Amino acid sequence: MGWKARRHMKLDGILPFCRKLLAMAIHEGDIAVDATAGNGHDTVFLAKAAGDSGHVHSFDIQETAIQATKDRINKEGLSDRATLHLTGHENIQAVMPEAHKGRIGAAVFNLGYLPGSDKSVVTKPETTIRAIDALLPMLKPEGIIVLVVYHGHAEGKQEKSKLLNYTASIDQKKAHVLQYQFINQSNDPPFIIAIEKRG
Ligand SMILES: C[S@@+](CC[C@H](N)C(=O)[O-])C[C@H]1O[C@@H](n2cnc3c(N)ncnc32)[C@H](O)[C@@H]1O
Fold first, then answer.
1. Fewer CB within 10 Å: C terminus or N terminus of the chain?
2. How many domains is the chain partitioned into structurally?
């Protein structure tokens, strides 16, 4: 049975575990980052969790993704809580307002390509790593970056190994780094790398 066919179990699947980590990390009034907006599901989730006094910054390099996210957030009546950036997450340092730096409770990267769209547009290890590097100093103590790593496609294999090397080398005095993965499933199931900034 592949990872997509899984239904009933006590252990959290990858996406529920991702949401659990984000919900744990983000508090009312926090700033949140959706580094790969896609269809906007995570942006809506983060906007709800950040509350009226919080804010979400969402990034995507595809206009269709930013538009889909805009539509979703408008439909939920949450447009005041989100700023959508049509630019790569590696530019976060330049576009994040100074007042929001240091207030980030949670950030999420759903890596790979957007299902149902152009499969040639994929996240790249160099830019993902550049974004994580820029994000770490902007996190609150105990703030969390969650990476969902999809590695079924060719570029995903490279991204997986480069990200594992990079995140395993983050100074343990600066952050706790966790890998959450089902290790007996077929079809290259996605896994999580979570980075929690130390207080
Ligand atoms: C797996 S999808 C995200 C799915 C999304 N979280 C959702 O809920 O629908 C990955 C997205 O990352 C975007 N992307 C690729 N490179 C990027 C970059 N450098 N910066 C920001 N987004 C990027 C793609 O355009 C794609 O929409």
1. C
2. 1
CATH number at residue 49: 3.40.50.150
**Alpha-carbon distance 63 to 72, whole Å?**
14
Would strands 82-85 and 139-149 be described as parallel, antiparallel, or unpaired?
Answer: unpaired
51 Rama class: left (phi>0) / alpha (psi -120 to 50) / beta: left
Amino acid (one-letter) located at 11? L
pLDDT value of residue 1 = 46
Region 74-101 average pLDDT: 98
In the chain, beta strands by DSSP E: 31-34, 55-59, 82-85, 104-110, 139-149, 175-180, 191-197
- The number of the ligand 1 atom at minimal distance from the alpha carbon of 124 is 16
Domain membership of residue 198 (yes or no) is: no
Q: How far is the CA of 98 from the centre of ligand 1 (A)?
A: 24
pTM: 0.95
Please, are residues 193 and 6 in contact by the beta-carbon 8 Å criterion?
no
Residue 81 lies in a domain: yes
